[in-house]
Amino acid sequence: MGNFDLLMHGFGIAITPMHLMLMVGGVMMGLIVGVLPGLGAPNGVSLLIPLTFALDPTSAIILLSSMYWGALFGGSTTSILFNIPGEPSSVATTFDGYPLARSGQSTRALTLAFMSAGFGALLGVIVITLLAGWASNFALKFGAPEYFAVYFLAFAAFIGMGSAAPMKTLVSLAAGLLLASVGMDSVTGSIRLTFGFEDLLGGISFLVVVIGLFGIGELLSTVQEGLRFRGVASKIDLRDVFKTIAELPRYWATYIRSGLIGIWMGITPGGPTAASFMSYGIARSSSRKGVPFGTGRPEGIVAPETADHSAGSCAMLPMLALGVPSSATAAVMMGGLMIWGLTPGPMLFATQPDFVWGLIASMYVSNLIGVILVLATVPMFAALLRIPFTIIGPMIVAICFVGAYTVSNATFDLWLVLLFGLVGYLFSRLDYPLAPLVLAMVLGHKAENAFHQSMVLSDGSLGIFFANPLVSSIMIVGIALLVLPKLMQHGSRLWRRAPVE
Amino acid sequence: MTIKVFHAELGTAVATGLLGLAGVIGASELGYGWEESGPQAGYFPFYVGLILIGASLWNLVSAFVHHREAVAHAASGGDTEEPFLDRERAGRLGVFIAALLAFVIVTLTMGIYVGSILYITWSAWRQGGYRLPLAFGVGLAFAVALYVIFEAIFKIPLLKGPIEPLLGIY
Amino acid sequence: MTKTKTGLLAATALMLAAPAFADFAPTRPVEFIVASGAGGGTDNFARTIQAVLTRDEIVERPIVVLNKGGGSGAEAFLYARQNEGDPHKLVFGTNNVYLLPHVAKLAYTVEDLQPVAALALDEFLVWVKADSPYQNVMDLVNAAKEAPGTIPFGGSQSKDTDETLVALIEQTTGADFKYVPFNGGGEVGVQLAGGHVAANVNNPNENAGQWQAGAIRPLCVFAPQRMAESEPVSGDMGWHDIPTCKEQGLEIESYQMPRTVWLPAGTEPEVLAYYQAAMQKVAESQDWKDYLAKTSQSASFLTGNELAEFIKTSEANAVKVFEAEGWTAQ
User: Fold this and answer.
1) In C110-224, at which residue ranges do the beta strands (DSSP E only) sit?
2) Which of A274, A437, B65, C12 could bond to A270 as cystine, CB 3.0-4.6 Å?
3) Could you give the C-alpha distances from A102 to A97, A99, A278, A388, in angstroms and in order?
4) Which residue on chain A is closest to B33 by alpha carbon?
5) Which residues of chain B have a CB within 8 Å of the CB of C66?
6) Could you tell me if A449 and C183 are in contact, meaning their C-beta atoms sit under 8 angstroms apart?
7) Domain boundaries, chain B
8) Would you indicate the residue range of the signal peptide (chain C) (predicted)?
9) Residue A124: which of A423, A277, A326 has the closest Cα?
């Protein structure tokens, strides 16, 4: 009740010509940043912060958050049309989005993605609206063991569902974990696995690896088959858009499941990337009939996109309510908050209602703007694909290298992109799954830290992961996700001999 | 020069195994045991490295097993193994990778603007069959777009070489 | 050979650091190299300075901020070494510039950078959960003496400022805590509010929100005198009402973290003078005072010999702790 009144008050603040203009501008810039691989949302938002000093904090956060939503939308566009994820959180969208677009249904693929994204964001904002007061108490219950359990759950969800050879999945995962542990380990304060190379001191950025694996790797596969571009041209056909919208209710189960996963991962610090992978994994394991995942299945787009955006918007909640950013972009925004003189924390909701509710209300509006703008501008991005490969190919190569360079202004990263491009090509030709490697690079270090902290707290006893109902239930769900799918496969094979499509 | 899938599998398994070995060696320098304050810095990479070596060995062995089956299958009149790369594809890939390598080296010495102008011009001219001035124009336009987006709008400096300062661009 | 040369140059630069009018001015964009990720304390520090310098047109060239937070900031300092003599690069850090080489094997030494100025001191406080039984810092210390190695004390990172301070408390009092390293101050603040650790030594800014909400409370501050007067933060308590740790009987005179600005070694003395003058103007601006008040840091503008003296003392004190704990990298 109180929340609803506050929300209405927030709309009063958010909907002014000036703020609407900031939203449109923010979303547009976000789209550009999201489409360019390597120039990600965290980077874009941090570049905008100095420009916000002239604005009041509410306008500033509206601009920054709109840019974030735009980047999330933009990231999915290139995932689907180019098979190049513009954002790490849209990696999972490439698995089915790109095949579907290649089969000539790019409007359908894009509409599915944007509508799911919009729906996910809406779900996320509604949850924020409802939980604003309550969530901060819940998140306080998360200590190191609980964090570890959540990461474990994310890994388990993805590995358990893998369709590739288990040992190849394991190689991919372990390689990712090893790469993630290169550089300074902040928790033990030691420098690891750099073998004396200064360039490795800062670690290997997963963004650089993703750009190599997915950007250059995909180009190599394209070249091998002749110098044609395998991207998909797309004009947005309004009739197709409405047809796709009409088919959306069919995926209600996927929507609800993915939305819940996204909300969960957004409030706990799993973040959008883990959420999209997890959601994709679960959608794949729980589907029984129809075309296999990875070949352009609609649920394979709906699941990661819904989870990505609901997690992205929910990530604002712990950032505002606790000062715990659960995504890299949220972390940057939190830095902005402090520069503007606001202290993130439970009291923010009480002392700055205009700011908090103005932001929440703006999230409804700017995501709507995002869906419309992205549908309207897709033809612009898709037009890039009519350019012959001999011209656009090298441009994409150059953009990939530029993007990798801007991650940390290191020339060494250019070599890494080249190396991981070759790895990406080799792995995908030999059916090594790439996703576990990326997941391990994103979450590996956090999981290790949480494990380390838990072990310090418990003096080395693994019992701490089952010490209270919260952590035990997360662990049990994780173990179930790891083991059950394989058991069920064997079970169903025994149960009915009938071949599955 | 045709590369068989068998060879690619072997090479990949050996490479991932070596990566695991590097992890184990690097981690054992740090210590992989337990100390008073919990696991040592090398604990996690050490065991991950061992797992990686184990899984790579498994893949190595299974590549041999598959290869033997495939050879037996071919000997008994079945299809021969599909090649990983035939001559034609290897040639295309080789040219592209060589160009990539050249692009990286030029970028590192001359900066990313010169690197991308040369790379795009070369590709459009030699591979796309466009006339040289047009190809160069495309490359130059791309570099200008990079400059405007990154340096002018977003204030992100890109890698520059010895030429840009002469033009007054830092 | 070159090292002694740069050392000498740095020394001469320090001696010449009189606030004479500088005849150097940047001719190209100035890079601010931040030794932390975007959004960290050092990042806010650098971006505030960037805003003041740009708005008041103190530096007339564009200023570009680059985050190089890898290796706890070592990435930024190595970058400074690689750009020896470049007058268009400023490095922003804390005391990590001169402390990191002591605890980790790194390919730079503090001689590879020359100090320009320190603009603020960030304070350290001992914090406990609001409903914790400890009323002053000695309660906490005594509890850790009675049950050695069981009381979890959270901090940000290992062998960094937080763990050094906890080790200093242990060495001073003979208590034994269980130090749990987290990734950053914000994270430790939440862990404390959730009761997962018993205490932390966060900076005021990192814990202010939780204190305001009444989830945690400060016990004492490691400063020679109490912090500046402020509006009440929680209940009727403001920053000035927090006793110093020495008042409570913990014999640590002061433990503060400077916010520092550095140039690569080997630049001309005029360059140093130019940036010193620019930082002086920043420190006198109203925006800067607002920033200090907002983040509850203490104003302290140090440059030249004063700064060199401060660094020497601060380094010597920390190294003593490192040696006692056996952290020094050989």
Assistant:
1) 113-123, 125-129, 152-156, 178-182, 199-200, 216-221
2) A274
3) 9, 5, 24, 17
4) A460
5) 157
6) yes
7) 3-85, 87-166
8) 1-22
9) A326
CB A430 within 8 A of CB B12: yes
Residue C299 scores a pLDDT above 50: yes
Contact residues on chain B for C149, CB-CB shorter than 8 A: 36
d(CA B170, CA B150): 13
Residues in B 2-61 with any Cβ partner in A closer than 8 A: 5, 8-9, 12, 16, 19-20, 22-23, 26-27, 30, 34, 37-42, 44-45, 48-49, 51-52, 55-56, 58-59
Query: Which pLDDT does position A210 carry in this prediction?
Result: 78
Which of A164-178, A268-282, A315-329, B102-116: highest mean pLDDT? Answer: B102-116
Domain coordinates in residue numbering, chain A? 2-495
Q: Tens digits of per-residue pLDDT, A60-106?
A: 899 999 998 998 888 888 788 877 776 777 888 888 988 888 888 88
C45 and C120 Cβ atoms separated by less than 8 Å? yes
pLDDT tens column, B86-139:
888 888 899 999 999 999 999 999 999 999 999 999 999 998 889 999 999 999
The set of residues, in sequence order, having a beta carbon less than 8 Å from that of C167 and lying 6+ positions away, is C179, C321, C324, C325
Q: Is A401 within 8 Å of B103 when comparing Cβ atoms?
A: yes
Residue A49: Cβ-neighbour burial (10 angstroms; 0-12, 13-18, 19+): buried
Question: What are the structural domains of chain C?
Answer: 2-121+257-325 (3.40.190.150), 125-241 (3.40.190.10)
List chains adjacent to chain C, taking adjacency as at least 3 C-beta pairs closer than 8 Å.
Answer: A, B
> Rounded to whole angstroms, how far apart are CA atoms A88 and C26?
38
Taking the Cβ of residue B167 and every Cβ of chain C, the question of whether any pair is shorter than 8 Å is answered with no
- Nearest alpha-carbon partner for A46 in C14, C214, C32: C32
- Helices within A340-352 (DSSP H only): 348-351
Q: Which of A84-93, A455-464, B14-23, C231-240 has the highest mean pLDDT?
A: B14-23
Mark yes or no for CB contact C39/A331 under 8 Å. yes
Confidence of residue B149 (pLDDT cuts 50, 70, 90): confident
Average pLDDT (C286-292) is: 91
Beta carbons within 8 Å of C151's beta carbon, 6+ residues apart: C140, C143, C144, C177, C178, C198, C199
The H or E element spanning position C258 is strand C256-264
In this structure, what DSSP letter does residue B131 have?
A: -
Residue A172 to residue A176: CA distance in whole angstroms: 6
Cα–Cα distance measured from residue C82 to residue A402, given in angstroms and rounded to the nearest whole number: 21
Rounded to a whole number of angstroms, the CA Rg of chain C reads: 20
What is the spatial distance between Cα A198 and Cα A183, in angstroms, rounded to a whole number?
9
- Mutation site for C-interface testing, chosen from B29, B30, B37 by largest number of C Cβ within 10 Å: B37
First to last CA, chain A: 50
Report the candidate in C17, C5, C88 with the shortest Cα–Cα distance to residue C308: C17
C40 vs A: CB within 8 A: yes
Type of residue numbered C176: D
The reply to whether residue A456 touches residue C180, judged by beta carbons under 8 angstroms, is: yes
Q: Residue C214, exposed/middle/buried by CB under 10 A (0-12, 13-18, 19+)?
A: middle
Q: Which residues contact A459 (CB under 8 A, 6 or more apart)?
A: none
**Does the CB of C68 have a partner CB in chain A at under 8 Å?**
yes
Copy the structure tokens of residue A334.
């939190």
Nearest CA in chain A to C37: A332
